[in-house]
Amino acid sequence: AGSKLREVFDKINNLLSGKPVQTEGQTVSVTQHPQGLEFVCYKLAEKFVRHGEGEVSFHHDSAFPIAVVLSGIWELHPRVGDIFLAHLHKKCPYSVPFYPARKEGTSMEEYQRILGYEVHDSKVEEQDHFLKRMSGMIRLYAAIIQLRWPYGNKQGAHPHGLSYGWRWLAQMLNLEPLADVTAMLLLDFLEVCGNALMKQYGIQFWKTMFFIQKSYIPRIEAVTSSGQMGCLSRLKNFVQKCLQAEEIPLPKGILTPSFWRT
């Protein structure tokens, strides 16, 4: 509910503003310790990324309420946004976007960690689980860049708006594609913020979609084995449908004005 989201936002904002906040039966304030504010910014940013790799990866619609709160907090407390990006880029290098190369002397285990895989006791997580987590984080990022907290002052620019999404897409299409990962991330990104990018960039956006269909999808196909075609097929269908309709559908779960009356 919109009212619940406002409660959450106000509590986080009050905490970061140095006001005393009630939590679990006690009153806390960042002024109680010289590094209190820095610690809270760090943990809060980390928690938002965890929401992406956890909650959003399982419930795609949850990207929007989480993103709108973070967007508003970022506007008022830029430090949280900076640390959020640092956590996000470390956990999901594809959000830069960047495909890290293996450097000489780096063990396979360490390299897999750099790529974003979770490694416990020399056991690497399953590919499906890895892709799901990366998907959740990209979806959260794609939601953040298009959303603004509706009760903010709206005077300044979005602290990390659509221009960053446009840049992400352009940089992504300049990278050599990876099997599995590239198709999934492009689809996630376009499903969540394709509609907003279309409205903002118009003809330039459609040229990019045409480029994806004619040039980039064949490049993904070239590195994809027959057992990894699922995501690529979904990306192909999505791009084809959008080009035929000359329209990108609104993402599922987007917050409508009526949501804020709940």
TrEMBL record:
**InterPro entries xrefs:** GLE1, GLE1-like_sf
Could you give a single Gene Ontology term from the biological process aspect? poly(A)+ mRNA export from nucleus
Principal location class: cytoplasm
By its UniProt entry, which Pfam families does this protein fall under? GLE1
Any idea which UniProt keywords this protein has? Coiled coil, Cytoplasm, mRNA transport, Nuclear pore complex, Nucleus, Protein transport, Translocation, Transport
- Please give the superkingdom of this protein's source: Eukaryota
Name the Gene Ontology molecular function terms of this record.
Answer: inositol hexakisphosphate binding; phospholipid binding; translation initiation factor binding
Where is the protein situated, by its record's location annotation? Cytoplasm; Nucleus, Nuclear pore complex
Q: GO cellular-component terms in the record?
A: cytoplasm; nuclear pore cytoplasmic filaments
State what this protein does. Answer: Required for the export of mRNAs containing poly(A) tails from the nucleus into the cytoplasm. May be involved in the terminal step of the mRNA transport through the nuclear pore complex (NPC).
Hey, which family's this protein in? Belongs to the GLE1 family.
> Which PANTHER family does the record match to this protein?
GLE-1-RELATED, MRNA EXPORT FACTOR GLE1
Q: What is this protein called?
A: mRNA export factor GLE1
Lineage of origin: Eukaryota, Metazoa, Chordata, Craniata, Vertebrata
